[in-house]
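Actin filament-associated protein 1 (Xenoophorus captivus), 133 aa
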Amino acid sequence: YDSDAMSSSYESYDEEEEDGKCQKMHHQWPSEEASMDLVKDARICAFLLRKKRFGQWIKLLCVIKDNKLLCYKSSKDQTPQMELTLSGCSIMHIPKDGKKKKHELKIVHQGADALVLAVHSKEQAEEWLKVTQ
């Protein structure tokens, strides 16, 4: 029964994607236990890695909603760990170079430290750039 329950839940989320929620982002959709409110009106969402001060990476659920980037520690959280208004930000894609380096999105907001998010591919970076412009 478990496998049937899982497959039916995936089918229902596919139908939601066709509504335009997180469109074309099958591999990026948060886990099943995710609170649907977090991604309800999202323009795009994915689990991305955020670069911290000393080069460590932390996995966050990143959602763009109402011209804001919201980052949650887990898909079960109700309150974002970080919120950044995207107006006035410059966002650029830094392509992967070498085995250890990742494709990165660098978000610079005047008067604040740059935020660096690692994305899975060049295509994913382009999707995020499209949504944020």
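Confidence is low (pLDDT under 50) at residues 1-34. Strands lie at 44-51, 57-65, 68-72, 82-85, 89-94, 103-109, 115-119. ok done for today
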